[in-house]
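Justification of computing resources. Each target in the renewal requires a structure prediction run like the one illustrated here; the chain below, 226 residues long, is used simply to show the kind of job we budget for.
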Amino acid sequence: MSNAGPTPEASYRVTRYTTAARLNHMVTAASLVLLAVSGMALFHPSLFFLTGLFGGGAMAREIHPWIGVVLFFGFFGLFFRFWKANLPEKGDGEWLKSGGAVLGGHEENLTEIGRYNAGQKLVFWSMSALILVLIASGLAIWDEYFFQYTSIDTKRIAVLAHAIAAIVAICVWIIHLYAAIWVRGTMDAMTKGSVTGGWAWRHHRRWLRESIGGKSADGGNVTPAE
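Resulting structure tokens:
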């Protein structure tokens, strides 16, 4: 593998996300958190006190499905922005097998990574599937509008599927957040819209090369750091 090219010390920044993409992500993330909190409040009596954040039990139950609609369309926007960049590639298997090197901060020794690594792709596709399950099962048990369209047995299955999908989605979200905090400089992508050249070189070297060469599908711009 060739290491020719920019070095981590190079003083430039690379555009990672546009303002529109970051706003899309923030709306999706906020709706997911609100859904998780309101859903847990309705899930078990010991967590019912959380409904106070939404104005009480009746209000929490009323707005929970609407927040779900916001989440669905928010993630729908993210999906069509980034699904191509999350398609499986040849080097993904190697990345997954090299968990020690990744956790130890030695990704520079692995196959060059594009815009997303295999872990990020797993998060993307798992959340895509989970949100589809959540919206489908949620509609099946949204009795205010869809009571007559599903049987009692269907509702029971939907409640179980909804609860399981929600728990798994919360776990995936925690992993996603932890990884973003663990890898220093990653949060800049969402807070500033860009990352340092060193970060891009270390974690997503092929994407950096494509950005510098003007071949990046997302049109990433490389600019001098301030």
